[in-house]
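hey m, so remember when u said the tokens were messed up on ur end? i reran from scratch. heres the input so u can diff it against urs
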Amino acid sequence: MLTVASVTKSFGGRVLFEGADLQLNRGDRVGLVGPNGAGKSTLFSIILGREEPDEGAVVFERGASAGHLPQESAPVGSETVLDVALGLGLEHGPNTAEAAHVDHLTEASRFGKNSSIGRRGNSAAGG
């Protein structure tokens, strides 16, 4: 579904990563962790096509796409992470049809009630 092949990125002589390889298949769930400045956000920017790698390639399976919900887009008040991701936030007002679709997506994605994706307000972890 997603292949990152031999990706290298550096800034001003500082190498963030070199020869990075990653294969994500349909249904895979992964986490990307590392210290501040390690290049996590840069790698996401490269995967999303917002930034070019110095070397290597990012290839999506035909018909596949990627999305990104920036950490700065945290829910407030009664919003959930899904509300923010799908544009159902307080500033847009709720849409009953879209809210029903969100409930269906939540169930279809097997996110349980204990998942932060359905929690209200500032209860989703960030960092």
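this time it looks ok to me. The radius of gyration is 17 Å. if urs says something different then somethings off w ur setup not the seq
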